[in-house]
């Protein structure tokens, strides 16, 4: 095990032991005083994590392709208690271990069948990674948050409210954004401003190539090859009256040359418009929420050059969740048009266990078996703490 893995594990084990203690809470209204925090307050940490297992099978004229993988993630956060910031400065970290069970990881299934973009977000064979290791500074009087450090920048930009591959849809057309070239991870800076009106704004910049090693933590902008993104959002009504929000994001990514001349990360730029909405009254027992996204990109940095998708989710009852999505896009590498329809069902066991079943129907050009349709079935399980 490398030095960085040892360091991360020591931090996490320390956090787990501290979390088990009955630590007191900090008084929110206490004055700024250098001696106001007890030792328990100063070492207080929040720790959580999850273990996900996902199996997928793609059916076609050449038979079935199967993939199985796991994702183990630990997250921690800690307020940095100083007299001048008073709980507005905090530290956040996330480590994960992703592995294939067998020869193929679920993330590789899309390229094996000729899909224009990934059929699942995450669930690769990357091993140990530190995707997040950053500080967050809140400025409550201005409703501003500033983050600096190593981070996955798309957690703050161009998102949608229905959830990701571990919660709802698996296909990257819904769970991620194949028409935007968000870096996997890297040193970055983001600023989010949410004034007390219907508008919100965000800006971010991060290194394109990420860290030299996925086990490395990098706080420095040691490259002039950058990814930049700006976003503006508008809420048509208060959230208490139901979700109805429109956002637009524009991005640019520089090209990066690697040690392998056949593996060059191309430059690109793009725009996306996302509309999030609620189809039921706010007090409905079975709320239906959804989103629609239109995106286009130029250059060679993305999997898709055009994307139009829409999806919606609802709760049948507190433990049963279903969703349906449909979309169409144009692959950047092969210029083929493909469409996708996905449906999922998820059942929650109390607070810490979930099982899910997803079905994807892919149609279009470019599949490796020369068929026009591919069917993918996925089954997953999750334990969280």
Topology (SSEs and partners):
Elements: H1 3-19, H2 39-42, E1 46-60, E2 63-79, E3 89-100, H3 109-113, E4 127-139, E5 144-151, H4 172-175, E6 186-193, E7 199-207, E8 226-235, E9 244-253, E10 268-278, E11 288-299, E12 304-317, E13 320-331, E14 337-349, E15 353-364, E16 373-384
Antiparallel strand pairs: 1-2, 1-16, 2-3, 3-4, 4-5, 5-6, 6-7, 7-8, 8-9, 9-10, 10-11, 11-12, 12-13, 13-14, 14-15, 15-16
Structure described in brief:
This is Porin. Belongs to the OprB family. With 385 residues, the chain is mostly beta strands.
Characterize the structure shown.
The chain is mainly beta. It has a domain at 76-95 and 132-344 and 362-368: Beta Barrel (Porin), CATH 2.40.160. It has four helices and 16 strands. The protein has a 16-stranded antiparallel barrel with strand order 1-2-3-4-5-6-7-8-9-10-11-12-13-14-15-16. The longest helix is centred in the first third of the chain and has 17 residues, at 3-19.
Beta-strand percentage range: over 45%
Give the biggest beta sheet: 16 strands, antiparallel, barrel
Total number of strands: 16
What's the alpha carbon Rg, rounded to whole Å?
Answer: 22 Å
What structural category arises from helix and sheet content?
A: mainly beta
Order of helices and strands: HHEEEHEEHEEEEEEEEEEE
Number of helices: 4
Largest beta sheet: strand ordering: 1-2-3-4-5-6-7-8-9-10-11-12-13-14-15-16
């Amino acid at each position: 095990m490398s030095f960085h893995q040892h360091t991360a594990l020591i931090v996490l084990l320390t956090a787990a032991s501290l979390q088990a203690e009955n630590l007191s809470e900090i008084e929110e209204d206490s004055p700024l005083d250098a001696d106001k925090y007890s030792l328990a307050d100063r070492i207080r940490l929040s720790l959580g994590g999850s273990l996900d297992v996902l199996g997928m099978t793609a059916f076609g004229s050449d038979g079935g392709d199967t993939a199985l993988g796991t994702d183990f993630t630990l997250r921690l956060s800690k307020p940095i208690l100083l007299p001048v910031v008073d709980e507005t400065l905090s530290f956040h970290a996330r480590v994960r271990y992703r592995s294939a069970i067998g020869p193929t990881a679920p993330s590789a299934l899309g390229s094996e069948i000729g899909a224009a973009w990934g059929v699942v977000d995450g669930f690769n064979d990357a091993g140990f990674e530190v995707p997040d290791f950053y500080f967050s500074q809140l400025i409550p009087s201005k409703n501003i948050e500033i983050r600096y450090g190593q981070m996955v920048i798309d957690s703050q930009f161009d998102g949608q409210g229905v959830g990701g591959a571990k919660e709802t849809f698996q296909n990257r057309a819904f769970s991620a954004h194949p028409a935007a070239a968000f870096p996997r991870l890297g040193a970055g800076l983001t600023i989010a401003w949410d004034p007390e009106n219907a508008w919100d704004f965000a800006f971010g910049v991060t290194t394109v190539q990420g860290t030299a090693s996925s086990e490395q933590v990098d706080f420095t902008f040691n490259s002039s090859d950058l990814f930049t993104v700006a976003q503006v959002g508008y809420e048509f009504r208060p959230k208490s009256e139901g979700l109805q929000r429109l956002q637009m994001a524009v991005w640019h990514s520089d090209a990066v040359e690697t040690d392998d001349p056949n593996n060059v990360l191309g430059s690109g730029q793009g725009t996306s418009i996302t509309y999030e909405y609620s189809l039921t009254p706010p007090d409905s027992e079975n709320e239906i929420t959804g989103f629609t996204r239109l995106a286009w990109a130029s250059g060679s940095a993305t999997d898709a050059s055009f994307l139009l998708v829409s999806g919606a989710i609802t709760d049948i009852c507190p433990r049963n969740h279903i969703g349906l999505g449909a979309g169409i896009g144009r692959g950047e590498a092969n210029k083929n048009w493909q469409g996708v329809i996905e449906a999922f069902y998820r059942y929650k066991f109390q607070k810490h266990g979930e099982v899910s079943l997803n079905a994807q129907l892919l149609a279009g050009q470019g599949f490796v078996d020369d068929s026009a349709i591919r069917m993918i079935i996925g089954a997953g399980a999750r334990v969280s703490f």
